[in-house]
Amino acid sequence: MTEDVKLNVAVPRHQRDVYDEEADQMGFASRAAYVRAMVNAGRRDFGLDPQGSGGEDTTLAEFVERRIVAVIEDADGASRDAVVEELTGDIEQTVTECLARLDDAGRIDYDIQQDGLVVRSEDD
User: Fold this and answer.
1) Is 98 exposed, middle or buried (0-12, 13-18, 19+ CB in 10 A)?
2) What's the start-to-end Cα distance of the chain, in Å?
3) Single pTM value for the model
4) Highest taxon of the source (predicted)?
5) pLDDT tens column, 27-73
6) Backbone angles phi, psi at 109, to 5 degrees
7) Is the dihedral of CA 1, 52, 16, 89 positive or negative?
8) Signed CA dihedral, 25, 14, 31, 54: sign only
9) DSSP SS3 for 91
């Protein structure tokens, strides 16, 4: 495990507020965790290793574990069923929103012949 150090970045106040709102909506425990995830996603888009050589990347399981802890803490205790319901509801909502964005951007479409979603080609 490596030692964490602070990295200060100045952003406009309204952008910080947007980050806080998005972090909360996505279940991140802190603004810092959300910004780290955004930086890592951007590094992936540039074809870079999110953490540099030899770094640790957050796995889906680690993200889910953090979300579980946040759900339990927010509720001051929760049953297993309540935790599962909360997380699956989050996932269903996120998938629905992602599908809508991909559809709006013209990246996916419903194909009647295949009776399902397909990725649109550049020729479409």
Assistant:
1) exposed
2) 48
3) 0.45
4) Archaea
5) 877 888 888 888 878 877 777 766 665 545 566 777 788 889 988 99
6) -155, 160
7) negative
8) positive
9) helix
Q: In 3D, which of 13, 5, 58, 53 has the Cα closest to residue 34?
A: 58
SS3 11: coil
Block residue for tokens 């888009």:
45
What are 105's two structure tokens?
């951007």
Q: For 105, which DSSP code?
A: T
The residue type found at 109 is D
- What tokens appear for 9 in the block? 């970045």
